[in-house]
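Q: My labmate handed me this sequence with no annotations at all. I'd like to see what the chain might look like in three dimensions before we decide whether it's worth expressing. Could you predict it?
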Amino acid sequence: MILQGKRVLVTGGAKRAGAAIVRELAGAGCRVIIHCRESADTAQELCAALPGTGHMVVSADLADDREIGNMLAGIGEFELLVNNAAIFHRPGSPEDLNAAELYDKINFRAPQRLLEYFFAQNIPAGAAVNITDAFALLPGTGAYHQSKQQLNELTRRLAPGWAKRGFRINAVAPGPMLPPPWAPESRMEKILPAVPLHRAVPPEELAGLVRFLLSCDSMTGAVIPLDCGISVKNLTGG
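A: Here is what I predict for the chain of 238 residues:
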């Protein structure tokens, strides 16, 4: 698919990895719709700095079905979708233990609804990428893990039916990339020695892979680990 001139909705696109994806796709000639929840000023600054024209910012709480509906009603048709927005609390913290419903709503149900809307549009073809988590490719428990695991499974499940209409869907499962907002930089220093490549994933590499998946007409139903070896570490007992 030629990305030039295509409209793309990037959820959680104002900051961090989402902003890298927005910049990459704008650089490819896309007209980017930057979704945010509370970072409207940051999103507007990013939007103003993007190359090209036709970009816009939309706000919605993805835990609220009505806000999602209002956002979609104001956007119009778009040919590309990147489900990047997610929440993640410190594992084992009170916030984490009490967030099961929010993990389900924001990390899985909201992407699912956006994908349903996207596929129902009256457009000849489209492509979507879900951003999941490399740890969801491994055995695990907890509501966050389950929400990302379900998104991986949804990606694979939708692909055959989507293909009949010329729509494609893939996922990227990143490893450690940036310290969570609630963690100091030192947390990354403790994690990276256990990563096979001993490095974090640069947001720009995630953005580049998203761009490739949106443009590659031969790929659908793939869940790609961009994780510096985390998801295969245990295969060799390492």
